[in-house]
């Protein structure tokens, strides 16, 4: 996947993700869960693109990037415009990717916490 090796394109992808997340309905529980998971994935992609966090396996990064692209893509198995079920396929893909990368995501979130502490100390 050509996108994974291009930091600028990955950061653009993250910017699109942040924009889409800002428009999601906060009252919907599943939307809140989706937003939280996508936020974590987006932060990981951004850290990877900036070269700050590269310990995640490349195959895992490709899977995460593909899931984010699927979420952002207007071409879905179930179009997002269909009220009530439009995000179901996105949620299914995201849940599968999130679970399959769960160990790596835990490591990343621990790294984020350490980075935040180190930034506050210095």
- Give the number of domains: 1
Largest sheet: none
Helix content: 55-70%
Provide the structure class. Answer: mainly alpha
- Give the rounded overall mean pLDDT: 81
Low-confidence stretches: none
Instruction: Tell me, briefly, the overall form.
Output: globular
The fraction of residues assigned to DSSP E strands is under 5%
**H/E series:** HHHHH
What is the distance, rounded to the nearest whole angstrom, between the alpha carbons of the first and last residues? 38 Å
Rounded to an integer in angstroms, the radius of gyration calculated over CA atoms is: 15 Å
* Number of β-strand runs: 0
Number of helices: 5
Descriptive notes:
The protein is mostly helical and 122 residues long. It has five helices and no strands. It has one domain. The chain has helices at residues 7-22, 29-49, 58-72, 88-100, 102-121. Helix 1 (7-22) runs antiparallel to helix 2 and helix 2 crosses helix 4 (88-100). The longest helix has 21 residues, at 29-49. The protein is globular and about 45 Å long. The N and C termini lie far apart (38 Å). The model has no long low-confidence stretch (mean pLDDT 81).
């Amino acid at each position: 996947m050509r996108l994974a090796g291009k930091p600028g394109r990955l950061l653009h992808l993250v910017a699109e993700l942040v924009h889409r997340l800002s428009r999601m309905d906060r009252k919907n529980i599943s939307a809140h869960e989706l937003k939280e998971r996508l936020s974590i994935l987006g932060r990981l992609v951004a850290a990877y693109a900036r070269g700050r966090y590269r310990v995640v396996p490349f195959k895992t990064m490709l899977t995460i990037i593909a899931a984010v692209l699927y979420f952002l893509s207007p071409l879905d198995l179930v179009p997002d415009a269909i009220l009530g079920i439009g995000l179901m396929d996105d949620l299914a893909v995201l849940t599968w990717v999130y679970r399959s990368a769960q160990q790596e995501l835990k490591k990343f979130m621990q790294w984020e916490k350490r980075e935040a502490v180190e930034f506050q100390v210095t």
